[in-house]
Design goal:
This protein has about 350 residues and is of the alpha/beta class. It folds into three domains: about 5-100, Nucleotidyltransferase, domain 5, CATH 3.30.420.140; about 115-210; about 210-260 and about 270-345, no CATH class. Helix content is about 55%, strand content about 10%. The strands form two sheets. A five-stranded mixed β-sheet has the order 3-2-1-4-5. It has a two-stranded antiparallel ribbon with strand order 6-7. Strand 1 and strand 2 form a beta hairpin. Helix 5 packs antiparallel against helix 7 and helix 9 (about 225-235) runs antiparallel to helix 11 (about 275-290).
């Protein structure tokens, strides 16, 4: 095996097994091997400098960091961009060969390798998101149980939370002792989940205060500690994008396009990319719309003109798109956000 002839390497990742294919400069296969994790790292440690590609999936950032420490050039590729290079049937070696070919393309889009701090922030957000979904499930279950007993509350969880103690103590509600006890258990679980969510939110606040990038992002309207830390966890310094428009498109905050010939067809927003981060920007945009729509400055006038001809949700998405582009500019430039004069005066 002539390792000096290796031009690129593709690794198909698994939980315990890894399939490696190495190509020469003519795209010919010169290495095709299956390894365990320890065997793979021992094999690559004895290789000269190599261009290594992997799909951006679970475990990819850890392995990419280890291979980079060995002196290799490692690039992560989104899985959907590898598929066009896969030939015929699908198996692990075919996938690894497709990765080895895709990583050599100059116009390929790559995913930056996340640092340990980014992975910590990402894990924190995922735990909080799971708890928020659990809280929503609890609220819906409590509402469903109470509806079967003829008890209906106004919309918003705050109304139900305010009335729950009264329902549990109301003797005229005609609730059986067993159901009252079960309802109390759900109520206690809801309160504990809320305490856990608040604790994680406070942790995000603390981390964002100590991070310079998060501090700069929080100067933008509609960007709080949760949104700022989510942005940093997802894109770091924004180096993966050449401009803010690419970041907004990656978030799915631009129209999907299905055009052919001379006919341009624009659909609703594409909703591709990071769903969680897109949702955070949408929430931030709703807060901005609530605060600035009465502003007489340039930003407020733009919002008013948009509201006069577009639906409210369209306006929210447009503001979210603008916030995403501003966030990228702040991260990539390393400078503080400069509020427009008219908006600052208001």
């Amino acid at each position: 095996m002539n390792t000096a002839a290796i031009a690129s390497i593709g690794i198909d990742l698994g939980k315990t097994t890894f399939h490696l294919v190495a190509l020469d400069c003519h795209a010919g296969v010169i290495v095709r091997k299956k390894f365990s994790r320890s065997q793979l790292l021992a094999f690559t440690a004895n290789l000269p400098f190599a261009l290594i590609g992997m799909e951006a999936c679970s475990g990819a950032h850890f392995l990419a960091a280890r291979l980079r420490d060995q002196g290799h050039e490692v690039k992560l590729i989104p899985a959907q961009f590898v598929k066009p290079y896969r030939k015929s049937n699908k198996n692990d070696f075919v996938d690894a060969e497709a990765i080895a070919e895709a990583v050599t393309r100059r116009n390929m889009r790559f995913v930056p390798i996340k640092t340990d701090d980014q992975l910590d922030l990402q894990a924190l957000h995922r735990v909080r998101e799971r708890l928020v979904r659990r809280r929503t499930a609890l609220i819906n279950q409590i509402r469903g149980f109470l509806l079967e007993r003829g008890l209906v509350f106004a919309k918003r969880p705050a109304n139900l939370r305010r009335q729950m103690p009264l329902v549990l103590e109301d003797a005229d509600a005609k609730l059986t002792p067993y159901f009252r006890r079960l309802l109390n258990d759900l109520w206690q679980e809801w309160k504990q989940v809320q305490l856990d969510i608040d604790a994680l939110t406070e942790e995000m606040e603390r981390l964002s205060v100590n991070d310079s990038a998060c501090q700069r992002l929080r100067e933008i309207h509609g960007v709080g500690p949760v949104v700022a830390s989510a942005i940093v966890a997802a894109i770091g310094n924004g180096a993966a994008f050449r401009k803010g428009r690419e970041f907004a498109a990656w978030l799915g905050l631009v129209p999907a396009q299905y055009s052919t010939g001379d006919k341009t067809c624009l659909l609703g927003i594409s909703k591709r990319g990071n769903e969680y981060l897109r949702r955070m920007f949408i929430h931030g945009a709703r807060a901005v719309l609530f605060r600035v729509k009465y502003d007489t400055g340039a930003f407020g006038e733009w919002v008013k003109r948009l509201e006069s001809r577009r639906a409210r949700n369209v306006v929210v998405v447009a503001i979210a798109n603008k916030l995403a582009r501003i966030a990228w500019a702040v991260l990539s430039s390393g400078e503080h956000y400069q509020m427009p004069r008219a908006f600052a005066a208001a």
